[in-house]
Structure formats: C-alpha cells, structure tokens
C-alpha cells in the first residue's frame, strides 16, 4: 500500500515513515522543508534500508499536489503538514489559519479528483481546551485557547463534514497528547528552531550545554508536587498509532472516527526532570518561574477507545522516553543543523 505523508519530514512524520517502511508500506513524502531538514530523508534510509519518494512542495499548491497524485498511485494519506507553534499562532493568526486550513482543503480537493478515500489526520489534545475533568475522552466538549488549536479543531470539522458529503470517505482523527522521545537509533528526533517551547527539547538542550537551566513554569498548581502534569507518549508509540489507524480504515471503516493517543498516565514537570537525570546520570539545573500564560494543571488521556478499537497501546515507559530523547540530542547536539 502506498501512503502519502504530508509533512513527512517533521518529528512525528519521520518516525511514522520509519514504522510504515518497516511494516511493508510504500511511502511518498510531501514537505516544503520550511520547518524540517532534508537530512531526515537520508536518516530514514539509514534506519530502514529503504527509499521514499520525496516531493519538495507546498501542500497548499494545488498544481504541485496534482502532479504528485498523477505520478504516484496514492491509496491513503496521513496529513501532518502544518504550523505548530502556539505562541507564534497568537502573534500571526492569519498566517496560521491560511496555512493550516489551505493545506487540508487543497488536499481534500485533490484526493477527491484522484478518488483517494482514506485519510488520517494529525490532531492534538489541545482541542479539549481547558479540561474540566481528566482523563479526557473523545466525546468530551472541545474548545481552544489559541489559533493553533483552532486550526486543529477546524480541520477536524472540515474532515468530518467531508465524510458526511462523501460516504466512501474514511477519516481517522488522532488526538496526540505530549510526544517526546526519539527512534532508538538516535538518527531522527525533534529538532526545534530557536529556543524550544516544549519541555523535553528544552531539557535535552540544557543537558547538552546549549541552555543554562530549565525554567519550571509554576509550582503552585493543584497537582501532587505543584508542577504541571501531562500525558507524555513515546513518539514511536505514537507513530505506531498511525499504522493501526490505517489498518482500521483498511478493515472497512467509513465516516469519521476520533482517537486519543496517550498512555493514560500523567507525569509532572519535576517527574520528568528527575527521571531524565536518573536514567541518563545527568544533572538538570532548574529554577521555578511564573506560570506560563495559557497552561493548565493536568492534561491526561483516556486511551481506552484506541486500545479497544484500534488494538493499539503505548509500550514505552518514561525511562525509555527520557533515554531516547537524550540519545538523539547527544548524538546530534545541534539537531539536524
Ligand atoms: C504544548 C501546547 C499544545 C501542543 C503541544 C505539542 C501550549 C499551551 N500548549 O502543550 O497546544 O499541542 O505543546 O507538544 O503551549 N514546561 C516548563 N518549562 C518549559 C516548557 C514547559 O515548565 O520550558 C512545562 C509546561 O508548563 C507544562 C509541561 O512542561 O506543564 C509541558 O509543556 P509543553 O511541552 O510545552 O507541552 P504543553 O504545554 O502540554
């Protein structure tokens, strides 16, 4: 089966590409490499011994996308492409709406022209907004606190509406919790531009000496140690969730189905710092700072629906996540640069 990965050179896309290749799928990547490195492609080849077709195109460029579909016999799409920085989305909302919605709309139009009926979409737990109760279940109310989140939710709506209009279309919406970790080879991983916004890349950059210390954003939350609790998931487990979603679609699912991809276990910021220090035998200096605007105390998934219906569970624990994140960063102190 030949699968198109939009944004396939990014952090989650590249790990999904490796798992697909290792499981006998053929892969085509469409990526404009604005936020990803072309080195990723060689690394994927090093890990898998297999090649992928790469189109350096913008997914919102309809003519370029048509050319890709006319040259490759695409049977399913996994749609990762999109901007993903929360703070930047608040500063540049129109840029986020234009890019993240145009890519999905163009993709759906071209898929329809070429009669491609299977799509998995990279959504986020951010669509639950400020949770009233945890763990979060797929049927709980959605709302967002920033334009990035709204683009995820609007894309979910667009894809859902498309399945109402076209009864042959199959859509799986995957709501990711907090992906960390890296492939065990240490050849691919997360390589953010500039100062990392997210916790784990910040910690690994402190560990490698690029940042002085971690700022812990608040220690007065209503959590066991006062720091924010999240549901961290190993990126390889997350990648395998996409394979399960494709199998689910191939087994005849039609319409739209939503799945949380998380472990169901929450860890605090200090749990992460302590575990990272322990398994890697490193000190991570940190200082308690003000809360970050927009953060909430606890976000955890109820992954039962994915466990049962996709036959998917997360296998890696926090020790693996911390070890693999560091293995990637220490082998690539400057990421792909
Ligand atoms: C963030 C985004 C979310 C996005 C997700 C992608 C916000 C408000 N939310 O989630 O929309 O889908 O990333 O992975 O940005 N922390 C520190 N110091 C740091 C960085 C983070 O203490 O330098 C804390 C945060 O306060 C939070 C936890 O670490 O409690 C995780 O933060 P982060 O990795 O940024 O993820 P989220 O905020 O959960």
Strand content: 15-25%
How large is the count of helical segments? Answer: 11
- Element order, helices and strands? EHEHEHEHHEHEEHEEEHEEHEEHH
Give the structural class.
alpha/beta
What is the CATH level 1 assignment of the domain at 2-181 and 232-263?
Answer: Alpha Beta
Oligomerization state = single chain
Low-confidence stretches: none
Query: Quick check: average pLDDT?
Result: 98
Description:
With 337 residues, this protein is α/β, with parallel strands linked by helices. It has a domain of 212 residues: Rossmann fold, CATH 3.40.50.720. 40% of the residues lie in helices and 17% in strands. It contains eleven helices and 14 strands. Strands 3-2-1-4-5-6-11 form a seven-stranded parallel beta sheet, with helices on both faces. A three-stranded mixed beta sheet has the order 12-9-14. Strands 7-10 form a two-stranded parallel sheet. Strand 5, helix 6 and strand 6 form a beta-alpha-beta unit. Helix 5 runs parallel beside helix 6, helix 7 packs across helix 11 and helix 9 packs across helix 11. The radius of gyration is 19 Å and the shape is globular. The structure holds uridine-diphosphate-N-acetylglucosamine. The site of uridine-diphosphate-N-acetylglucosamine has 20 residues, from helix 7 and strand 8.
